[in-house]
Amino acid sequence: MVISGGTDGMGAALARHYLTAGDRVTVIGRSRGKFDALVAAVSEEDPSALARSRFIEADLSLVADSRRVVDRLLAHHERIDALVLAASFIRQRRETTAEGHEASWALFFLSKYLLVTGLAPLLRAAERPVIVNTAVPGARADAVDFEDLETARGFTFQRSNMQQRRANELLGILAVDDIPNLAYITWGPARLVRSSFAGDVGPGMRVTAAVLGRLLGQSPEAAVDPVIRIIDAPAPGRAAYRGATELPLGTGDRHGSDAARLAEAVEKSL
Predict the structure, then answer these.
(1) Over the stretch 204-249, which tens digit does the pLDDT of each residue have?
(2) How far is CA 148 from CA 30, 106, 112, 164, 220, in A?
(3) Contact 111, 60 (CB under 8 A)
(4) Residue 199 burial class via C-beta count within 10 angstroms: exposed 0-12, middle 13-18, buried 19 and up
(5) By its UniProt entry, which Pfam families does this protein fall under (predicted)?
(6) Which of 108, 135, 234, 250 is the Cys-Cys partner for 130 at CB 3.0 to 4.6 Å?
(7) CATH number assigned to the domain with residue range 2-269, chosen from the 4 options 2.40.37.10, 3.30.43.10, 3.40.50.720, 3.40.50.1820
C-alpha cells in the first residue's frame, strides 16, 4: 500500500491500520519525525512493522518531487495493491510554487495525475488494484475551466476547490480506461474529522475548523472505516462515496471527452 499524506489525520489512520494488519506500507509525506513516531507506536505491538514500512519525503506541490516519488516507487516495488491519495494543505489565497504552478492545483491534482499515470505499471501488476482519492465527490460537471486550469483569472477558494474535485473525478475515467480491473474511488468523509489542520488560511477558518472539529468531528480512525472496507473488497470501475454512502457518478460522452481534454491540457502544462 502507498499512502500520500500518510503522517497525519486519515492518511495516518490508514497507515496504522494496515501496518497493524501485517501489510507493507509506503508513506509519502513531509515529516520524517511524524512517520517515525507512527511506526514506533505500531512496533510496540508488532516489531515487524519497522521492516514493513517505508517513507518517502516529498513536497507534492512540486512536480519534480512527484516525478521523483514515481521513479523511486517504480524502482523499488513490484506491485501496488492500493494507492491512497490523501495529501492535503489548504490555501485560501492563490499561491505560486517555485516551478510556476498554482500551489493548490499542483498538490490536489497535478501530483495525483502524476502518481496515477506514472504508477500504472505497478497497479496493473496487482490482482485487485484500488485507488482511493480523497477528493470530495459531487462537483458540477462544468467546474473545470480548460482555458484556466490554474485559476489565474478570478481566483476564489470555492472555484479552485470545485475545479480540483471535478478534475479528480475525470482522472478516474482516465485511470479505469487504462487499467480495466482497477477500482477508482473518489471519497470524502461523511462529516468533519478531528485532526491537525494543515493549511495557510485566515484565523476565521482556522478557529471554525478547530471548534467544530472538537464539537462535531469524528476521529480519523472512525472516518476511514468505510475506506478500509472498500480497499479490502474493491469492485472494478469508478465509484464515489461520502463516508459509507455511495453517490451517483456522471456518465456519457461529455465526461469521456472532458477527461481526454483534461489529460491533453495537463500534459502540455507539464
Answers:
(1) 554 445 545 555 679 999 999 999 999 999 999 999 999 999 999 8
(2) 29, 14, 19, 12, 34
(3) yes
(4) middle
(5) adh_short
(6) 234
(7) 3.40.50.720
